[in-house]
Amino acid sequence: MNRRSFLTTTAALALAATSLPAFAEEPLKVGFIYVGPVGDMGWSYQHDQGRQAIEAEYGDKVATTFIESVPEGPDAERVLTQLALEGNKLIFATSFGYMDAVMNVAAKFPDVKFEHATGYKTADNVAVYDAKFFQGRAIQGTIAGRMTKSNKIGYIASFPIPEVIQGINSAYLHAKKVNPDVEMKVVWAYTWFDPAKEADAAAALIAEGVDVVMQHTDSTAPQAKAQEAGNVITFGQASDMSAFAPMPRVSSTIDNWAPYYVQRVGAMLDGTWGSGATWGGIDTGMVEIGEISSAVPEEVKAEALALKDAIAAGTYHPFTGPLNKQDGSAWLAEGETPDDGALAGMNFYVEGITAELPK
Amino acid sequence: MITLIKRPTPSRGWSYTTPIIAVLATMIAGGLMFAALGKDPAQAIRMIFWDPLFGPNAAYFRGQLLVKAGPLILIASGLAVGFRAGIWNIGAEGQYIIGAICGASVALAAYPAESHLLFPAMIVAGALGGWLWGMIPAVLKVLFNTSEILVSLMLVYVAQNLLAYAAFGPLKNPQGFGFPGSRNLQQYPSAHNPELIAGTGAHWGVLAALVAVIGAYILMHRHIAGFRIRVAGEAPRAARFAGVVPARLVMFCLGLSGALAGLAGLFEVSGPSGQITDGFNAGYGFTAIIVAFLGRLHPLGILLAGLLMALTYIGGDMAQMMLGLPGAAIQVFQGMLLFFLLGFDVLTNYRIRIGRARA
């Protein structure tokens, strides 16, 4: 320790000691940046629910702000800098595409902590977090496989990134497990949120004869299309989408960020915040299964719930060998499960899916 | 009784004052909207128009103003030349994307070699890419008399799909764990388009925008080509007698605006944005159309309009953050600006007579 840093540290300590009561009254400022509008009823909406949970939990000890509909790119860097300059000490960047912007801004503001959703780059003041959505897909796949009459399941995919591919594979494997004749049709919408495109994708799938539509996009447009068609079932994505229950929405996977956000803000308040990578699932409550509606037969519901309990208890992993890749090469041996690192980079379909993965 | 009487020639005075009236009307109507949302309108207007320039942290925001205005001005300068000639390039967004892809491809092909020649080569590639994309509607118009409005607009969607392909395919970062997006050019010194003076925000693209403004001014107001372009727009038949070849004019205008849009894309991808991602294009190509009209298609007007537009973006984010205004309200506010401008344009071309028409 040189003289200069010694002086500043002691000065800071002295300052902290004398002004602790004043600091206690000053709320911790927490900023959020969303990729969509908070009214998307999906991804950004759920993050905003997490923000509200922080406010409810800590009251006037925290002050939160958010900016919605920030495109991934240079604007994100400016908005993140703006949040840091405005005195936010903990900033949640809630979309994958903010990654490099977060890293740049974090380097400029070493005393501000950043939390980046679904990314993989960390630093002393940057932590990442994500949810194991594929666990929810396993349950959806089971219900879908049992309930489909045409044996054709449609999937509206967003972008060919590992998170989405995990979901398709997991849904397919579990549908196939209960119904060997099942076939998976995938439409790439190349968007996270675009009601018009999502509606088109749903309509195209239904025209091809699917009677189950899964979506990895955030709007309720596919639900509305399925409702028009009448005999098609869907699953809520990111949020519960319960407005469409009991038909077409028979269940949902809910991203519940609230427990994680509350915990991380708590760590900030008591000074124990540390960097790291969190990948939460059904067990930690980050992935929630929305109510299975009355349109699902009792025995299917019981089967789905048993699967959920097994995943939560850790006795079952949705990717358990023997499993082959689409090209027939071996992936997992009998009883083997992949580690999180291997899953996080998943860039292939499992054997049996006939669709082609965009490269 | 109010009647509109067409002026024999558009009023010069009104043509310069309507943008100012439009801004004032936007402030009033926007203020009413903010008030209806339960926010203090004076505070919101101050935050949008004043705080980024003179408020706390203004030093940072002034630089960001240049970052945001640079591509808008660069693109709008090229578009305005065509608009003057009655050639409507609506697809600058696509030319911007292709310019960025071409420029970044040159850099990524050379990676990791360091050379002073790399950045100039990227500039050439970026301009060439945008030029080529602009030449498609030009050639189709010349050969088959297609509408350049439709063709250039449709090519935006083609370009967006090429962008997604590039980000997920050939330009994907091989060290990116399978996630989409290219290497970050900010971390590749030879390819990086840095701030020329730290903290000012001014990168090569901002400089290029200034050069474009001066170049467009000389072209349009001090050169015979500019005279021909204006005559072609105002009196096409007269232009033919003056020796203007329509085909050459179409090629020149679409090529020029395409090349400038391509350059803007290249400077953006190598500077503030850093990487090719599927969401890289942030709508600059479309916003530049508003900037061109707000600036009366005059180079100096465009310079001011670009800065004003950038101000509403940065101030808008600030108002969202500080006052909790919804993001959509800011977009409505920006839309009002164009609406009022076009509305008040009536005064440029018409006189208003109040009272009974004299027989």
From TrEMBL, chain A:
Keyword Mitochondrion: no
Record keywords: Signal
Signal peptide: 1-24
Classification via InterPro entries: ABC-Purine-Binding, PnrA-like, TAT_signal
Keyword Signal: yes
Stretches assigned to the ABC transporter substrate-binding protein PnrA-like domain: 29-308
Protein name from the UniProt record: BMP family ABC transporter substrate-binding protein
Taxonomic placement: Bacteria, Pseudomonadati, Pseudomonadota, Alphaproteobacteria, Rhodobacterales
From TrEMBL, chain B:
Matches recorded under PANTHER family: ABC TRANSPORTER, PERMEASE PROTEIN (PTHR47089), GUANOSINE ABC TRANSPORTER PERMEASE PROTEIN NUPP (PTHR47089:SF1)
Biological source species: Rhodobacter flavimaris
InterPro entries: ABC_transp_permease
Chief site of localization: membrane
Keywords for the protein's UniProt record, in alphabetical order: Cell membrane, Membrane, Transmembrane, Transmembrane helix
Bilayer topology: Multi-pass membrane protein
Name of the protein this chain belongs to: ABC transporter permease
Ligase is among the record's keywords: no
Localisation per UniProt entry: Cell membrane
Lineage: Bacteria, Pseudomonadati, Pseudomonadota, Alphaproteobacteria, Rhodobacterales
